[in-house]
Amino acid sequence: MRAIAQLWLLPSRQMPLLGVLAHLLWLTAIGCLVWITPHADGAALGAGVLAMGSWFWHLGLATTLRGACQPETFLLPAFRRRLAAFGLLDAVTWVGLPALLALALGVPHVPLGGALLLLAAVMGFAMGVERWVSLLFWPLLVLAGWMPGLAAAIVQDALHSPLTLPLLLLLALLLLRLALHPMLRVVDRPADTSPLEGLSLGRSASADTAPRRSALGRRFEGWFDAIAQQAMERALARYRERPSAARRRTLVRRLLLPHDNAAAIGLRITVMAVFATLYVVVALHRKHFNATVVGAYAVLIALARFPQIGRGMQRMRPNLADLYLTLAPATRAEYQQTLADALLVLVPIGTVTALAYTVLGIVLTHAAQPGLMLLVTLVVATGGGLVALAVHLIGPQNTVGRQLVNAAVLIGTMATYWAGVWLVGALGYVFGGGLLALLTLGFGLGTWLAAQREYRRRAPLFDAPLA
Questions:
Q1: Handedness of CA 457, 455, 192, 400 (dihedral sign)
Q2: Which residues of 332-354 are buried (b: 16+ CB within 10 A; e: fewer)?
Q3: How far apart are CA 25 and CA 41, in angstroms?
């Protein structure tokens, strides 16, 4: 029982707010079922609250168990049996007890309600293990938003169909099988990847957790890794052909930022554009949609890369010792300047990315002021990128500090974007855009130059970060 209790406490220890919130929702749902009369109304309200709490809890539970189910963990005595006992206890808590209580109170449709609760729990668990599972349910939500009358009719027919219950149970079983298969499979740990790689597929999310990737994710990774290898080989060949300081910086960039070459950036923008196009066409094609907000989203997407700098450079400290010995700089400041110059390329990359997404948004939403959106996005993405790179390069080393700094940068950048939209709209492209560029780019360049001086002054660190 001690091992089962530890598994139960694992999500609450790693995410205390989630543990408190989920169990408060469980108590609230039981209270609604017992105290609200008639009990059918209380059960309807309680089922919704319980389903929401169960989804959140099992999403966090899957995230923590995915990190705990490492190859070496399965060497523990009877680990699989205790994991199965914990799963049974969890199902009894979130599905069995509420269903038995509802059955004792005479609530109608208890088997169907229990099946829906089980499906909500399994959905949360599956999405925590395999993120792409959420894409399976997204079309259903869009369809329900488009045709609420049809959705209501389907629900009413499903309540009286004898096939609904077995189909729900079968769907829950399939989702559970889909989630447990990669989690319980014992495989060798994959090769380490650069913490500064430009993918968002979960490969560098944790330094000590083997990621679980879908077949589609592995295919994308293969494409990007092949492009990165080719770019590195071309840069190395050019440097050997004619060594120069510029080609040396390119080599360092290819090493630190493997997925930030032209081909990989184009592929990343293309993949993102496909999903953004589907989302805008299907979900946001509305007559009163404010197209200007597309630029704000594009800037946020571009800035989402910079928090990786602080985490990645901290995790790469032991590996950077090899780079230091290879470069053999005359001074420590020269080595620090080389790293800063290599990372500076992320600013124009972020600007190009933001402009590409903005152009896509302009085309999809038929924006009335494309020039204003492009101008403001260009200025704000460049200035925001300089500030974000500066603060994440020399900012706090702890997780909370980095999150606070990132929140401040994002809030400030969004405020600057909307202020720029108003300024250009009020004063015109020349005066308004010029004033916006003077203030935003001046602040960004000043922040970056100050951060660069501070980074050059610091001594290189090669010790592994504390856990």
A1: positive
A2: ebebbebbbebbbbbbebbbbbb
A3: 17
Q: Which residue has the tokens 């080595």?
A: 335
On whether the CB atoms of residues 120 and 54 are closer than 8 A, the answer is: yes
Q: Taking 80 as the threshold, does the pLDDT of residue 105 lie above it?
A: yes
CA distance 434 to 446: 17
| CA–CA gap between residue 59 and residue 56 (Å, rounded) | 5
Q: How far apart are the first and last CA of the chain?
A: 29
Question: Which uninterrupted H or E stretch holds 396?
Answer: none
Q: Could you count the other beta carbons within 10 Å of the beta carbon of residue 161?
A: 11
Task: Classify each residue of 202-211 as buried b or exposed e, where b means 16 or more C-beta atoms within 10 Å of its C-beta.
Answer: ebbeeeeeeb
Residues in contact with 63: Cβ distance below 8 Å, sequence separation at least 6, in sequence order = 11, 128
Residues in the chain: 467
pLDDT at 126: 87
Which pLDDT tens digit goes with each residue over 36-50?
778 777 888 888 888
> 228 with 317: CB under 8 angstroms?
no
d(CA 139, CA 146): 10
Q: Burial-class residue 114 by CB neighbours within 10 Å (0-12, 13-18, 19+).
A: buried
Distance of CA 51 to the CA centre of its chain: 23
Distance CA 203, CA 210 (A): 8
Q: pTM for this one?
A: 0.65
Mean pLDDT in residue range 120-132: 83
**Type of residue at 409:** V
**SS3 letters across 317-350:** HHHHHHHHHHHCCCCHHHHHHHHHHHHCCHHHHH
Domains of the chain, residue spans:
2-184, 290-457
Q: Region 231-240: what's the mean pLDDT?
A: 90
- Angle separating helix axes 293-303 and 399-457, nearest 10 degrees: 70
**230 close to 209: Cβ distance less than 8 angstroms:** no
